[in-house]
Amino acid sequence: MLFKTLAPFIAILGAAQAAPTPLSLSCSIGSESLVAATSSSEYSVVDCSTFLQGQFDVFSCHNTTEIPAGESCCFENWGVLMQTQFWDYNATYLDLLNSTSPEDLATLEQQVLSSYGDDDAKSTFTIHGLWNDLCDGSFNQYCNPSLEISQAKDNITHVMVDVFGEADLYKKMSTYWLNNVKSNVENAGNIDLWEHEYNKHGTCMNTLLPKCFTGAYTRFENTISFYKKTVELWSNLPTYQFLQQFGITPSLTKQYKLADVQAALAQAHDGKEVYIGCLKGAIDEIWYYHNLKGNVLTGEYQPIDSLTPSTCGDYVYYLPK
Ligand SMILES: *[C@@H]1O[C@H](CO)[C@@H](O)[C@H](O)[C@H]1NC(C)=O
Ligand SMILES: *[C@@H]1O[C@H](CO)[C@@H](O)[C@H](O)[C@H]1NC(C)=O
Ligand SMILES: *[C@@H]1O[C@H](CO)[C@@H](O)[C@H](O)[C@H]1NC(C)=O
Ligand SMILES: *[C@@H]1O[C@H](CO)[C@@H](O)[C@H](O)[C@H]1NC(C)=O
Question: Would you say the CB of residue 64 lies under 6 angstroms from ligand 1?
Answer without folding.
Answer: yes
